[in-house]
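FIELD: query
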Amino acid sequence: FAAGAVNVIPESGHFDPEEIFELLDHWPNASFFAAPTMVVRLLAAQSARAPRHLRTLIYGGAPMYVADSLRAIQLFGQRLYQLYGQGEAPMTITGLPQEMHQASMMDRLSSCGYARTGCEVKIYDDVDRELPSGEVGEIVTRSDCVMAGYWSNPAATAKALRGGWLHTGDVGSMDAAGFLTIRDRSKDMIISGGSNIYPREIEEVLLTHPAVAECSVVGRPHAEWGEEVVAFVVAKTEVSNEELDKLCLDNIARFKRPREYRFVEALPKNNYGKVLKTELRKLLAPLTP
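FIELD: result
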C-alpha cells in the first residue's frame, strides 16, 4: 500500500502453490511474501517453475534451512530476499539481499543478513551485557520501528524494552561483519545435562538426508538429564532410525543427537506455515527412569 502497488489476493482464500504460480505468471513485476514452509511447498509443486514475471520472493517468519535455500535458488535464481523481524519490530531488523542468495555464499545463506538502515542489532547475555562476535545470546534491537509497548500491559512492556532495547526472545550470534544468524527461539532451546542444544542445528543435518521431507526437533522432559532430544520426521521414502542416527553422529556432537526418531505423516502448522512445536511437545510423555 505504501508504494501504491496492486495487492493481489488469491481467489481461493488459502495458499495453493498451483494458484500462486498462475498468479505470478500473470502479474508483471510481482513481489511475493512467503513463510519458508510456503517456499518449500512451491518447490514441491508439480508445476514448479521460475515465474516469468516474478521480481522478488520475500520470505521470513522463520529461518530458512540451508538445504531449502539452495533448492529455491536453483528454481528462482537471485530473486530471493530474506527479512527478519517480529510483530514488535515488523520486517525491520535484518535483511539478506538478493545478491547474497548464491550457492557459493554458504556462510551468508545460513544467516538472516545484516541490520537494516536505521536499525541497531546486538547480542546480549542473560544479564543484558553485550557479547562479542561469534558468541551466542539473545538478539536485541532498537530503531524508530520498534513498538512503543504492549497495549495495557506495562509489566510486559518493561520486560521487553528494558534498557531501551527490544529483547526479541530469539537466540543467535553475529559475526565480525555484522551478519546475524538465528539459532532458535529461546523457548525452543533444549537443555540436556546442563548443555544448550539448538533444534535448528539438528534439523539442518536431518534435512540433508534425501529421504527426509520435513523434520522438527523438540525437547522431552527427562528425570536425570532435564531434557532429551526427540526428532519428528516426515519421510519421502523409507528411512531407518539407524541411518538418521549415523547421519547425526557424523555431523554433530553425540550429546545433541536425537534419542528418538518419531515418523509422522505431517507436522502441525499454523496458518502461516510455522511448525507448532508446542503441539509436538504435547505428544511426548516424560521418560520414566
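FIELD: remark
The radius of gyration is 20 Å.
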